[in-house]
Amino acid sequence: MPLYEHIYLARQDASAQQVEELTAHLKGVVEGLGGSVAKTEYWGVKSLSYRLRKNRKAHFTLMNLNAPPAAVNEIERLERLNEDVLRYLTIRVEEHEDGPSAMMRRAERDRDRDDRRGDRPRDRDRRPREGADDVEAAAEE
Fold first, then answer.
1. How confident is the model at residue 63 (pLDDT cuts 50, 70, 90)?
2. Residue 110 in contact with residue 21, Cβ under 8 Å?
3. Each residue of 41-57: pLDDT tens digit?
4. Model's pTM, two decimal places?
5. What was the pLDDT predicted at 21?
6. Fewest CB within 10 angstroms: 22, 49, 106, 111, which?
């Protein structure tokens, strides 16, 4: 069976639980038509580059599918009918990525970077050194 990566964007007004229920429903449709879902990743609410149907943010969800084309057509049809789904994209791939997707790796990297930053004082948190006013006054003359 062909392999697919399927991503859909749900309205920001929908709760995370509603998005999970939609993902479970789509997973059931795929499995009912003889396919399987290898992995699902919820990427969270992210800002959009431009407004889609008056929404500036959306819930992003990735699904790695091992399914016949009929199953992919059916979930795309259901997403077109669902008011909560803003956009979807299905891409046929040669093989699925092992481990977390690039978006999840980026989120982990950002968390690690923020943790490291927490130890260092920021420029605005630093107090001026003693005598710094004397150096600035001399530079102005």
1. very high
2. no
3. 999 899 999 998 899 99
4. 0.72
5. 94
6. 49
Distance CA 117, CA 15 (A): 31
Taking the C-alpha atoms of residue 43 and residue 108, their distance in angstroms, rounded to an integer, is 12
Cβ distance 67 to 94 under 8 Å? no
Give the SS3 label for residue 84: coil
Structure-block tokens of residue 132: 């710094």
Neighbouring CB atoms inside 10 A of 137's CB total 9
* Domains observed in the chain: 3-117 (3.30.70.60)
Place of tokens 């943790």: 115
29: tokens are 């449709």
Amino acid (one-letter) located at 54:
K
Average pLDDT, the chain: 84
Q: Taking the CA of residue 16 as centre, how many other CA atoms within 13 Å lie in the half-sphere pointing to its CB?
A: 6
